Amino acid sequence: MLKFTIRTIAVFVLLILAGVNQAKAQGVSAYFGVGSANDGAGTSPGCASKQVFDEVTSACEPGPTIGGAFGVIGADFLILPHLGVNAEYSFRFAQANYLPGAGLNARPSFYDFNAVYQPTTGDRRIVPVLEGGIGGSRLSLYFNQSSCITQICQSSSQVVATSNHFQLHGAVGVKIYVKSDIFIKPQFDLHWVHNLDQQYGSDFVPQYTIAVGYTFGRH
Predict the structure, then answer these.
(1) H or E segment and range at residue 169
(2) Quick one: 106 exposed, middle or buried, by C-beta within 10 A (0-12, 13-18, 19+)?
(3) What is the pLDDT averaged over residues 130-135?
(4) Domains in the chain, ordered, with CATH?
(5) ∠ at Cα 139 (86, 201), nearest 5°?
(6) Cα–Cα distance for residue pair 124/119, rounded to 1 Å
């Protein structure tokens, strides 16, 4: 599923870039950035607040949270002066603790396909951006273990389970052009992920990113 998602985003971006020379294209932008997404810990029945029951250890332990450094890659294509389409993929760079007592880590990711609205024309230095669409979320669980033989230790990590969810996505950002075609894009995203509260504390995941991008065909 993850490879399919990455390929889908890549194909979408390539199709957008392939349309740069089309006469009707109003502007094509591609960007990459960093930021963070956040969700709190849930609570299992019979456990203290923000603790979950670990079936492996048969004990309650602190529940997992979403946080840390995320990367984002995306592209948008304006079909009309103010309207277009967009695709984004955001992912946590490193594994995070999920259930340490069971040796489990997790890496969440989000992908979405959106309609894009830019209230101002693309030739302005500051261009607000509104996005809204649908997509999915993927949570990969890793089992980590280490072994030592004659004082030589090795560690391994492998995916043992994945969880996929449908999501609704909205975002508000602004492109600030520092040169004619190069922009910086701070953005706030809100993911509503169906049944994510089965793993974390809420279905809502706010995300904050800042990206650097390039706009083709800007005038």
Answers:
(1) strand 152-177
(2) buried
(3) 96
(4) 2-216 (2.40.160.20)
(5) 100
(6) 11
Distance (Å, whole) CA 31 – CA 133: 18
Q: What is the per-residue pLDDT across 170-217, written as a single tens digit (0 to 9) for each? A: 999 999 999 889 999 999 999 999 999 989 999 999 999 999 999 987
Q: What is the CA 44 to chain-centroid distance, rounded?
A: 26
Residue type, 139: L
For position 122, what pLDDT does the model report?
67
- The dihedral built from the CA positions of residue 19, 21, 23 and 29, taken in this order, carries a sign that is positive
**Dihedral sign, CA of 36, 112, 174, 77?**
positive
51-60: string of b/e by CB count within 10 Å (b at 16+)?
A: bbbbeeeeeb
Residue type, 159: V
Tokens of 153: 């230790």
State pLDDT tens for residues 42-67. Answer: 888 888 998 888 887 888 888 899 99
Residue with tokens 């273990």: 145
- Spatial neighbors of 172 by CB under 8 A, at least 6 apart, are 128, 129, 130, 131, 187, 188
Whether residue 196 contacts residue 42, with contact meaning beta carbons closer than 8 Å, is answered with no
Q: Which amino acid is at 129?
A: V
Q: Provide φ and ψ at 45, rounded to 5°.
A: -55, 135
Paired strand residues for 149: 152
Sole residue written with tokens 């040169």: 179
**Over 90: is that where the pLDDT of 24 sits?**
no
Q: Is the dihedral of CA 162, 69, 213, 123 positive or negative?
A: positive
